[in-house]
Every structure is written in structure tokens, then in C-alpha cells.
Amino acid sequence: MKKESPKESIAEKTRTYIDSHPSIKDCIARDLINFSSLARLIMKDTGIKNEEAVMIACRRYAMRLGKHDHESEILKVLSSSRLEVKTKICIVTAKNDWTVLHRLETVFRKLINEKAIMQVIQGAQAITIIADEKLKGEVVDAVGKENVLKVRQDLVEISVKSPEVIVDTSGVYATLVSSLAEGGLNIVETASCYTDTIFIVNEEDMIEAYSILSKCIESAEDVQEKEEE
After folding, report:
1. Which of 55, 58, 78, 184 has the lowest tally of Cβ within 10 angstroms?
2. Would you tell me which CATH number, out of the four given (3.30.2130.10, 3.40.50.620, 3.50.30.10, 3.30.2280.10), belongs to the domain 78-228?
3. What is the pTM of this model?
């Protein structure tokens, strides 16, 4: 007989709720939140009935978060990051099939010799190939037209190049994505490769996207300079 798993405690539900809302978590860590209001919000969204228990859970979690200045770590990474833009990018979306990857091998060999760049992202149902527009025909021919699901062009790739410490710093990607979303920007595709965080946007959104990401970096630089004074 299968043993039933124990019900999640109020404290666990509260922590889960806070963790799934980064803006709330940051405000708690910086002591910028009203716990009574937060408790009522959590109760409303989760169905928990015990306000006192939720408030206690919030305060205890706040004590833990206060010991770890997560935002400071994110700002340190961003202050040392730089932007790189590549225009005339295309995306070829193909069926997720081993034959597609095998056919791409010849294209990869050529690109390595020419020192060109192409990113391949394999998902559960499709393979996404991000490349220079001049390679579009070659990629489509290599993959096989019968395997191509969609081709998009007139795109721009904006890469945020960060120091190696980004690998061990959570929240940097979320900060960048949130900033673009708040600016009303549609991200066509995104990828992460070691220290590079890559955003693909439509050509008409290039200036706005670059401006938003630049402000993220500049703001982080200003904070770091003030802390060093």
C-alpha cells in the first residue's frame, strides 16, 4: 500500500510562495515589507487560514534572508558585465530528431573552420538553431526542408557577457528578464552559454532592449561605486 506523503506545513507553503515571487523576496531581504499585508496576501492566494502562523513564518524566513545579501551579489555580477550586439540573425526551428543533429554536423565543421558562431538548443519537441542570416539557406538545406517547422529572420542577438562568478550566482538571469518584461519587450528566444546570457529580439526592438539592459548594468555600476566610496 502506497504511503501518503505528509501535508506541506504552513511554514513550507509560506517559503514556497515567497520563493516564487522574487520581488517580494527581495523586499523581505531588504526589510521593505509590511508582514501583516504580506500574510493576508499569502492567505488569499494559498487558502491558508491561520494569519498568525503565516506572519511567524514570514518573519523567520526574513531573518534567514537578511543574513544573505543576494541582491548585492547580483549587482556585482552586472556591474562587471558588458553588452555585445549582433544584427541579421535568424532562427530555424526543426523537428527534434537525431537525424537533424547528425545533418548539422557538416555545418558545424564548416563554422569552426570559418570561426563563425551558431547556437543549437535541443528541447523536448524541437531543435532551435540560432545563426547568422547568411547561413539560413545552408542550415535549412542541411536539416532538410521536410524537418523545418519554422524560420524567423530580421532578428538581433544581444549578449550579456559576465564574469565567471555568474555561474555560481543565482538571480542574474531573472533580473535581466524581469527588466525586459517590465519594458514591454518580447523576447523571441533566450539562451545561456557559460558566462554569456543571450537574448534574441526583433530588429525593431533592438534599441529599446539594448537601452534597458544598459541601464541594468549602469545602475549596478553606480551602486558598486557608492559602496566603494
Report:
1. 184
2. 3.30.2130.10
3. 0.73
